[in-house]
Design goal:
Elements lengths: L10 H14 L3 E4 L14 E4 L6 E5 L4 E5 L4 H10 L2 E2 L13 H7 L6 H4 L6 E7 L5 E5 L9 H6 L9 E8 L1 E2 L3 E8 L3 H12 L5 E7 L2 E8 L1 H11 L2 E3 L3 H5 L12 E5 L13 E4 L4 E5 L4 H10 L3 E6 L13 H14 L15
Parallel strand pairs: 1-2
Antiparallel strand pairs: 3-4, 4-8, 5-9, 6-7, 6-8, 10-12, 10-13, 11-12, 11-15, 14-16, 14-17, 15-16
Length: 356
């Protein structure tokens, strides 16, 4: 059975809604599938539903680019790509069946493969945006060689809907790998894992994911049958039937919803950030998940010294800022960017920082 994606264009309706809100001085919260509603500060604003804005605008598998309306279900798009032995290179999380392409781009979240193949920002080629005046703006293109407006399209990744309503996006896709295998190794400490995996990263192994938890390091190899078998022979370790989707979707036991979950982003070779604490280390050390109560202020001070940041990702106490505060100059720059797209500040105001 072939993947079927509804073709529904509500661009004109959305433009009218936004123009009306802008004229009245109101504020809106942009809702797609709601799968990542938890991510960022809570809002109290009029909900604008964009999940119905669905359809494939253009997809020629030979070009390795797909252009979609933002309300397309992520699962349906991935099924369509899989029919052509293609996929998103950044392995985006769903968190719920209703996850949409717009939420994928707006959140900027990526899965285990991101540490070796790049982030969503590296794959976005173009976008169509509904701004705070109710105008439709087009950036970039649908082919890799067209780089006009490229950086503006990338700017929308991780913006959490604060710049406008994402209507369409063009994304570069990649071929599926012929085979994959996971190897497990023993490393008693996080520091031993971090040193080891960064040494491996400088060698020509077909690495596509890494993780460390409770004394066990895991590597995923992705590539040709011959290349993966050769790498397995050189690396050793024990082959495992490991479910990387548990890590991507945060269904691993460390991510139990009753516990606060903290994400630490650091330069990959940084030493163990929280010795003795339950944690998962991904992306060669660049992303670290801490489970349980933490002193966010102390963590943020230390992360800043190392050139990183700390996100109160899920289930933290009220009043704890989700994202690490920006230096005043950077915050001013972010506000200037928002004002150029959303002068009245109607889109997801305060979702990331005050005034954004």
């Amino acid at each position: 059975m072939r993947a079927s994606i509804p073709d529904v264009d509500i661009e004109a309706e959305l433009a009218l809604q936004i123009a009306a809100v802008a004229a009245s001085g109101g504020a809106v919260e942009i809702i797609g599938g709601g799968s990542k509603k938890f991510y960022g500060e809570a809002l109290d604003a009029l909900a604008i539903e964009v999940g119905a804005h669905s359809g494939v605008i253009d997809y020629d598998p030979a070009e390795l680019v797909i252009t979609l309306r933002s309300g397309c279900r992520l699962s349906e798009v991935e099924a369509l790509l899989a029919e052509n032995r293609q996929m998103f290179g950044f392995e985006p999380p769903h968190f719920a069946p209703a996850a949409t392409i717009g939420g994928m781009v707006a959140s900027g979240l990526a899965g285990p493969r991101r540490g070796f193949t790049g982030s969503i920002r590296d794959f976005v080629l173009g976008a169509k945006l509904l701004d705070g005046r109710g105008d439709v703006l087009q950036f970039g293109g649908r082919v890799i060689k067209n780089v006009a407006g490229f950086d503006v399209s990338r700017l929308l990744v991780g913006s959490l809907g604060t710049l406008g309503v994402l209507l369409e996006v063009s994304i570069r896709v990649v071929p599926m790998f012929a085979t994959e295998a996971t190897l497990a190794f023993e490393h008693a400490t996080a520091d031993a894992h971090i040193r080891w995996v960064n040494e491996l990263g400088s060698q020509p192994y077909p690495l596509s994911a890494s993780a460390w938890h409770a004394g066990t390091s895991r590597l995923r190899l992705s590539g040709s049958e011959q290349g993966v078998v050769h790498a397995m022979g050189e690396l050793g370790g024990e082959r495992e039937d490991y479910d990387w989707a548990e890590l991507r979707e945060q269904s691993h036991t460390l991510f139990a919803p009753v516990k606060p979950l903290t994400r630490v982003s650091l330069p990959s070779a940084s030493p163990d950030f929280s010795p003795g604490r339950a944690q998962i280390i991904e992306w060669g050390g660049a992303q670290r998940w801490l489970s349980g109560e933490v002193n966010i202020a102390a963590l943020r001070e230390r992360a800043s010294q190392l050139g990183g940041s700390v996100c109160a990702f899920r289930d933290h106490a009220p009043g704890v800022a989700v994202f690490q505060p920006l230096p005043p100059a950077m915050l001013k720059l972010q506000r200037n960017i928002k004002s150029s797209f959303d002068p009245a500040g109607i889109f997801n105001a305060g979702r990331i920082y005050p005034g954004l």
